[in-house]
Amino acid sequence: MKILFLGTGAADFPEDPQGVVGFRRTASALINDDLLIDPGPWVLDAIKEFNVDISKIKYIINTHNHSDHFCESTLSYLCTQGAEFIKTEDEGTISFGEYEIEILKGNHTISVSHFIIKNNGSCLFYGLDGAWLQYKEIESIWKNKPDLGVFDATLGFISQDYRLFEHNNLNMVIEMKKSIGKDIKKYVISHMAYTLHTDHSTLSKEMEKHDIITAYDGMIIEF
Ligand SMILES: [Zn+2]
Ligand SMILES: [Zn+2]
C-alpha cells in the first residue's frame, strides 16, 4: 500500500497560511492514488500542489464531519470527477474494490470512525481524530498487526488541558507506542495543530528519538 499525506494539520488552520511557521493543510490522505480519506477543505489545493491525478480517485471515505475533515464542496467536486462517496459512519467491516475496511469508533467530541484498511496483503491503521485508543481498537490492532499506524498528535507536548479527552498529546502517543510495540510495524503522527507545535524539523527530530515518523504535507510512505 502507499499513503500520500495531503494534509497533516488540525482544525486551527489560519485564514492566510502565508508566512505561518509550521502551517499544515487539514488532515487528509490518499491511499494508492484511488482511495481518499477525508474530503477536507484543503484537499483540492494539495491535489494541485502534489500533482495528484484526480481522475484516479475512485473512492472517498470520511472519519467524521468536523469542518477540517469534511467539506461539501470538495466532496461534490471530486464526485463530478468520478469518485464515489462510501459511507463509513457505522462500526463493522465493508469491502469495495481491492479494499477491506474495518470501521472502529475513536474517542472524540463527536462520533469518529477510525480505520483498519487492508489491501493486497498490507494493513494500515488510521486513527484521526481521537484521544487514547478505545479497547476495541487495540483488540483489532493486536489481531491485524498493521504495517503502519497513523496516530493523532494534535496537542504537541502540552499537558493539563481539557482537549486531552478528544485528542492526543505527544506523550500519549509515545506511551501507546511503547505499550503496543511491534504489533504495529511503523508509527506515524499526523493532525498537528500549528498553534501547539514547533516547525517540522524540530518536531521530527524529537520524534525520531522515539522511532516515530512525523508526517508532513506531501509525504509518501510505501509499506
Ligand atoms: Zn480534526
Ligand atoms: Zn474532529
Please render the helix and strand layout as text:
Elements: E1 2-7, E2 28-31, E3 35-37, H1 43-49, E4 59-61, H2 72-80, E5 84-85, E6 92-96, E7 99-105, E8 113-119, E9 122-127, H3 135-144, E10 148-152, H4 170-180, E11 186-190, H5 200-208, E12 212-214, E13 220-222
Parallel strand pairs: 3-4, 4-5, 9-10, 10-11, 11-12
Antiparallel strand pairs: 1-2, 1-13, 2-3, 6-7, 7-8, 8-9
Notable characteristics:
223 residues; alpha/beta; Metallo-beta-lactamase, Chain A; seven-stranded mixed sheet; six-stranded mixed sheet; 5 helices; 13 strands; 21% helix; binds zinc ion
In a few lines, what is going on in this structure?
This protein is of the alpha/beta class.
Structure report:
The protein is built from five helices and 13 strands. It is α/β, with parallel strands linked by helices and 223 residues long. The chain is globular and about 45 Å long. The mean pLDDT is 97. The chain binds zinc ion (2 copies). Residues 10-11, 27, 66, 68-69, 129, 191 line the site of one zinc ion.
Unreliable stretches, pLDDT < 50, 5 or more residues?
none
- Major sheet size, sense and barrel closure: 7 strands, mixed
Q: What class do helices, strands and sheet pairing give?
A: alpha/beta
- Which architecture would the CATH scheme give at its second level? 4-Layer Sandwich
Compute the average pLDDT.
97
Radius of gyration: 16 Å
Which strand order does the major sheet show? 6-7-8-9-10-11-12
Number of strands: 13
> What name is given to the CATH topology?
Metallo-beta-lactamase, Chain A
CATH top level? Alpha Beta
Specify the number of helices: 5
> Rough shape?
globular
Write out the distinct hetero groups bound to the structure. Answer: zinc ion
